[in-house]
Amino acid sequence: MARKISYKQAINEALDLEMRRDPTVIVLGEDIVGGAGAPGEIDAWGGVLGVTKGLHAKHGNRLMDTPLSESAYIGAAIGAAACGMRPVAELMFLDFMGVCFDQILNQAAKFKYMFGGKAKTPVVIRAMVGAGFRAAAQHSQMLTPMFTHVPGLKVVCPSNAYDAKGLLIQSIRDDDPVIFCEHKALYGSECDVPEESYAIPFGEANIVRDGKDVTIVSYGLTVHRALDAAEKLAKTGVQAEVIDLRTLSPIDWDTVIESVENTGRLVVVDEANPRCSIAGDVAAYVAQNAFGALKAAPQMVTAPHTPVPFSPVLEDLYIPSADAIAAAVNKTTARALAA
Amino acid sequence: MTNNPFPLSKDELLAAYRTMRTIRDFEERLHVEFAKGDIPGFVHLYAGEEACATGIMMHLTDIDRIASTHRGHGHCIAKGVDVHEMMAEIYGKATGACRGKGGSMHIADLSKGMMGANGILGAGAPLICGAGLAAKFRGDGGVGITFFGDGASNQGTVLESMNLAAIWNLPVIFVVENNGYAESTSVEYATAVDSYVDRAAGFGLPGVTVDGTDFFAVHEAAGEVIRRAREGGGPALLECKTIRFFGHFEGDAQTYKAKGENDWNRENRDCLRIFANRVTSAGAVSEAEIALVDREVASLIDAAVESAKGAPLPSPRDLLTDVYVAY
What we know:
The complex is a heterodimer of chains A (about 350) and B (about 325).
Chain A: E1 2-6, H1 7-21, E2 25-29, H2 55-59, E3 63-65, H3 70-82, E4 86-93, H4 101-108, H5 111-114, E5 124-129, H6 144-148, E6 154-156, H7 161-173, E7 178-183, E8 190-194, E9 206-209, E10 214-218, H8 222-234, E11 240-244, E12 247-249, H9 253-263, E13 266-270, H10 278-289, E14 299-302, H11 312-318, H12 322-333
Parallel strand pairs in A: 2-3, 2-4, 4-5, 5-7, 6-7, 10-11, 10-13, 13-14
Antiparallel strand pairs in A: 1-8, 6-12, 9-11
Helix pairs in contact in A: 1-7, 3-4, 8-12, 9-10
Chain B: H1 10-36, H2 50-57, E1 65-67, H3 73-78, H4 83-90, H5 124-138, E2 144-149, H6 156-167, E3 172-178, E4 181-182, E5 185-186, H7 187-190, H8 196-202, E6 207-211, H9 215-230, E7 236-241, H10 261-268, H11 271-281, H12 287-310
Helix pairs in contact in B: 1-2, 1-11, 1-12, 2-9, 4-12, 5-6
């Protein structure tokens, strides 16, 4: 039975369902309950933006607030995963990878391969990504490419509530470490989400709009910008196909290649900085594997190669806009956007 | 047992000696084989520190977890990892403990509770908090031990983990194997406190320092903190003051050590010799029994080297297995 719930509620629901299903699932992170040891309410915050609110009442001490020690508690989650638990650790902001990256890069990502396949590390690291919150350079980055670069990690970035629930359930059940990227600007966005449990397999992109003239590939928040652009373009007679990658590692190359073979044009939209980005990765892959199908050079629409600025007037320029996406499409079709 | 003044049975004494002798011979032999150029990469030898791993690990079973270091061979052997598989791993062979994909610095056997040697200093401390957390959730009475050197004792991960283990009352022991040198840098230079017990106190943990060349001292102190942790008493720190007979890595000229330091240590602070003297002079174990263990271990190591040398190499297709490959 589907009903409209938000991206934030969908994540909460996925955690609740998996904690009910599997006693080895535990959830830990800074303020994920809130108020630990303090004189006031327990579950005071339920996470800094309330994503885990209410879970403590249902699951008690299987949710644990941690000290502000990212290396220690992310590492503990990884160690517990290597010892048979399925921990979901919240890193709050993915930007905080800087203070715990060794545990992710050199420990979790490596165990299975380095130990000859004899270890598994079923840990999920949830974290907020993306700009738009006026949170400036250290709380707003889209660092998906840095994790996608690392073999052994899986990287997920849902664009809507339905996907958030199904992909988080899959992430918890997966035996590899998963970096689960939640775009903070999407927490309030709602769509139809079934009440029951369901898992969305990794590596299956979603064609969110059909079109025959150009393929727009994106993930996360910018899927919505791409859809806005496609709407505008339709009015000028350009039919854009929009692909939501959903998972960046593994990535669904087949859907991307098949679409480009139909449309002959590619625009990749990525909120990350452009160098060594998902956009560059997809453009290169298509150029290498579907060059003959291309009628124009692939275009990349990304953030500029700068840190995320604070001032709203600058930050609004930072995130790829629907207009910038439409302009990139028009470059591939060599047509001017009407009006 | 009338001649045995020790808190261990004769069989246990011989088992302890066998473990220490196995580690020593394993490392001495690697020293020789490495010099021949047959072993790829880097090896960091544990010789001189055998009493630490052995005295601690005798209190553990397979449900207990350890997180080791780059100098991990001794921890592996004492935790029960198969010596043949270890040797084959160090030679990069398909029959190795990690099928040749890990090497000396990454030997692991999770079925034995050995969570891996580790090439990143101090990385085991957060991981062992996870092992302790898992044991606590399961209620299986398991404990976790993380080893780190005087060098890694200054990593933030170790300090963060001591705090985390303390506030969550985890069944975790932090073992500093203080051999005096962080690579080539002395502990006096690099560590701001004179005693690691002071570090422990900073996190509200009990801390104890023992002579790491004295098996019995390590065994007794470890027994106490491990029992306490198993019973829910929480984490502790154990400092073993020990020595490293070889360099940081094989090939290290060790010019930072005092002249004659290694020779003096081998003459006066050899934990195997100290142990054997004590148990034989007390009459708990005979010299013949010690000699028998020596011979048996020597053949085990010979056999391990021979089988490792003759073992098959990984096949090219192994490059792409045991990891998700998207490209």
